[in-house]
Design a protein that fits this description.
Keywords: Signal. The chain contains 7 helices and 13 strands. With about 350 residues, it is of the alpha+beta class. The strands form 2 sheets. An 8-stranded mixed β-sheet has the order 3-7-8-9-13-12-11-10, with helices on both faces. Strands 1-2-6-5-4 form a 5-stranded antiparallel β-sheet, sandwiched between helices. It is elongated and about 75 Å long. It starts with 7 loop residues before the first helix and ends with a helix.
Length: about 350
């Protein structure tokens, strides 16, 4: 018997079935939604607070507005515990500091924390403040995708002893989650000049970038380049009583020879002590413009001819007309002179 050929209708049905088999996985893939970002441990409100999150009755603190709209804000414990979480820290405009340093400054200012400068070598950092009425914890960290995130926790302990004990246990969980963020982010060695700069720049956005320290003062970007301890060709005395005008004139001549293209905005000058009448060591500053930068240097002679501590502050000028550059240079010179003086006075408090 001669085999019969399949009908055209049968062949069309078979082709349609085959196409369904091929296209079905693709259709399912198209409908599959991208996985939601994993919530980091420090932002898992339900787990850390032990309570279901509720709406926060009070508005977000104005000091946090610079961080943008929070990804999550949750409260519990009759409004006694609050968590604010930013999954992505916005990049600020018109600033010379990285986003993490700006966010660190804003968070620590919001909780009134005496925090160290941000360090570009850190992958994350936390800080806490504690008073009898309120405990606060701020954290910044970099995720696996390279994005910086932040969280802020606030806790007002209950007046009831048993409730406060229960709350304390959960607050310890918050601190434990924060401790994991600090791992691998040690504080830098507290060299004497660093301690003085940290005191002088307190309350300003700042960052440690290797051997360079950068900060913003009066909307001016500054960087401090330290030269350590050295000597000069002219003896600079430790005692202010031994400082002579001819010494300062001689140093100005040496500086002019070293920087022949400099425009001297403040010549080599003996500073007054932080508190009038104090018998402090002598300290000297000079400020000049060289090319597109304004530079200032501080000299701090050490006791017993142990050398001279030097610190130089630099601020780069933006491209502008010659007249505008002159105005900017004068403004920068005033800021740098003020910052050098503050650094010198902070040195007095710490080391004299």
């Amino acid at each position: 018997m001669t085999p019969t050929r399949p009908s055209r209708r049968y062949r069309l049905l078979a082709t349609a079935c085959a196409l369904c088999v091929i296209l079905t996985p693709q259709a399912h893939a198209a409908k599959r939604k991208p996985a939601a970002p994993t919530t980091p441990a420090i932002a898992d409100f339900r787990e850390l607070s032990g309570s279901y999150p509720g709406t926060c009755e009070q508005p977000v603190a104005p000091a946090l507005s610079g961080l943008g709209e929070p990804t999550t804000r949750q409260c519990a414990w009759s409004q006694r515990v609050e968590m604010v979480y930013w999954r992505s820290i916005p990049t600020p405009t018109a600033t010379c500091l990285p986003p993490a340093a700006i966010a660190w400054h804003r968070l620590t200012q919001a909780i009134h924390a005496d925090a160290p400068p941000w360090n570009n070598a850190w992958s994350g950092r936390t800080v806490t403040t504690n008073t009898p009425e309120s405990h606060q914890l701020a954290a910044i960290w970099r995720g696996d995708d390279g994005q910086w995130s932040a969280a802020l926790w606030r806790w007002q302990p209950s007046e009831k002893p048993d409730t406060r004990t229960w709350q304390t246990g959960h607050w310890d969980d918050v601190k434990q989650a924060a401790h994991a963020i600090d791992a691998g982010s040690p504080l830098p060695a507290a060299a004497p000049l660093f301690v003085a700069w940290r005191d002088a720049s307190a309350g300003k956005p700042r960052v440690l970038d290797g051997d360079t320290w950068r900060w913003v003062s009066d909307k001016t970007c500054l960087r401090l380049e330290t030269s350590g301890i050295s000597q000069t060709r002219i003896h600079l005395p430790y005692s202010r009583d031994d400082a002579r005008l001819e010494q300062r004139s001689g140093m100005q001549v040496l500086l002019a020879r070293r920087f022949p293209n400099a425009e001297w905005l403040q010549p080599f000058t003996l500073l007054e002590p932080g508190r009038p009448g104090d018998r402090t060591g002598a300290k000297f500053i000079a400020v000049w413009r060289e090319g597109a930068s304004v530079k200032g240097q501080l000299w701090i002679p050490l006791r017993d001819d142990a050398g001279i501590v030097r610190a130089r502050i630099v601020s780069d000028l933006a491209p502008a007309s010659a007249e505008r550059q002159k105005e900017l240079a004068k403004q920068r010179a005033d800021v740098i002179g003020h910052e050098l003086t503050s650094l010198a006075h902070a040195w007095e408090v710490r080391h004299e």
